[in-house]
Backbone:
């Protein structure tokens, strides 16, 4: 069964606007709401107006009552995995066992530079991600965890109280076919990629399956999801995505009800177990409401 969700960006908005948005998303019948992890707006404009991720994730857990409460994705480059795992365990309690956690390697250098956080090569960032996901997985899934890597060391580390769920789902975000998908194949419960075409999604999913075979892991154990933008017109598209807009255009929905449903169906046919509509302020919910009705969610 396909899950339909909404990924809510935290830039240029207020807490009350987010509360109202989350209330409406849940009322429309979507099964998932997630937040991102950025300190600056995720549009390469350098705009610093962005709410913090862990606090927003906790607020989401408290505000909602039914949806899965996800993160797509926390940045391994500036979130120590032990600190993050403890936060997620508490968020799982706040949500009554509805929390998911996503991890990624990080990409927005502007916020690293502004805060004096080292921004190493992509290979090093992926090395950090691969160690971080093992640490988070151990802390959330096991009673105690020991790990010794280049970037992180844990010694009989415990995360208590334990999460409500026996196993909090862990997602890896990103589309890198050599390293990111290999990391997902080895350690993730879910894989998410944003703003790709249905054809690219299908191809990357096939690469993930090959990595699963190499890791001797059943590919059906990993849920595959895609984040898709939605815009009413070009002005709305530009307002949401800023300097990123041409790069994300292949994965942004526009048009009437039939066009929206047809495009979403292409991703489902390509193997998406979950489709998330990635919204950013200024919040325009007409398209989301039309899509929910067309999909029979509300």
Residues:
């Amino acid at each position: 069964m396909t899950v339909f969700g909404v990924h809510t960006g935290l830039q240029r908005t207020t807490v009350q606007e987010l509360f109202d948005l989350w209330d409406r998303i849940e009322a429309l019948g979507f099964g998932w709401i997630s937040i991102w992890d950025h300190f600056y707006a995720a549009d390469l404009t350098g705009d610093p107006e962005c709410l913090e991720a862990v606090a927003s994730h906790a607020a989401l857990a408290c505000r909602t009552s039914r949806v899965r409460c996800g993160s797509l994705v926390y940045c391994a480059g500036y979130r120590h995995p032990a600190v993050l795992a403890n936060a997620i365990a508490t968020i799982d309690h706040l949500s009554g066992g509805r929390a998911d956690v996503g991890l990624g390697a990080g990409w927005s250098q502007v916020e690293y530079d502004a805060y004096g956080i080292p921004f190493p090569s992509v290979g090093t960032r992926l090395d950090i991600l691969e160690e971080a996901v093992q640490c988070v997985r151990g802390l959330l899934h096991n009673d105690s965890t020991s790990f010794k890597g280049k970037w992180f060391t844990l010694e009989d580390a415990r995360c208590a109280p334990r999460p409500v769920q026996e196993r909090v789902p862990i997602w890896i975000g990103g589309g890198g076919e050599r390293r990111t998908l290999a990391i997902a194949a080895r350690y993730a419960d879910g894989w998410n990629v944003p703003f790709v075409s249905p054809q690219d999604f299908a191809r990357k999913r096939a690469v993930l399956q090959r990595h699963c075979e190499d890791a001797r892991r059943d590919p059906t154990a990993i849920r595959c999801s895609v984040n898709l933008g939605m815009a009413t017109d070009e002005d709305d598209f530009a307002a949401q995505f800023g300097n990123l807009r041409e790069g994300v255009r292949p994965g942004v929905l526009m048009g009437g009800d039939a066009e929206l449903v047809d495009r979403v169906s292409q991703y489902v046919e390509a193997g998406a177990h979950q489709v998330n509509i990635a919204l950013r302020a200024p919040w325009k919910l007409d398209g989301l409401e039309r899509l929910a009705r067309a999909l029979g969610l509300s």
